[in-house]
Amino acid sequence: MELLLYFLIPLGLTIVIEGVIALLSGIRSVRDITVVILAQILTNPVVNFGAMLVYQSFNAYYYGLYLFVVETIVLFVESYVYKCCLKTHKISPFRLSAVCNLSSFGFGVVWGLLG
């Protein structure tokens, strides 16, 4: 159960944070918000599973390197998903992905420091 919560809590928080950022960015249609949520369901568990493995197996340097590389890949993957799937053009797909990921990652860092 603890392992399931390890994945569900960050995913839920990421969906909320990035959903709010999407709304603030002018994305209003249910379809486009659904695309943003599905992008998180696609990428977040992969990032967290890898982070868990690297954190348990290596030192902080490799953990930080892993996060940098994987979050950069996620930025481009989500940008591509947004470019192909979003109907709105109020914000560029890359900018949306960047703002969403920086916001949720920043929240995660603060959450980790407080917890």
Task: Tell me what you see in this structure.
The protein has one domain. It has helices spanning 2-24, 30-57, 60-85, 93-114. It has 115 residues and is an all-alpha fold.
Q: How do the strands and helices of this protein lay out in sequence?
A:
Layout: H1 2-24, H2 30-57, H3 60-85, H4 93-114
Helix pairs in contact: 1-2, 1-4, 2-3, 3-4
What key phrases describe this protein's structure?
single chain; 115 residues; mainly alpha; 4 helices; 86% helix; globular
Characterize this entry briefly.
This protein has 4 helices and no strands.
Report the count of strand segments. Answer: 0
What is the structural class? mainly alpha
Mean pLDDT: 93
Report low-confidence residues grouped into runs of 5 or more: none
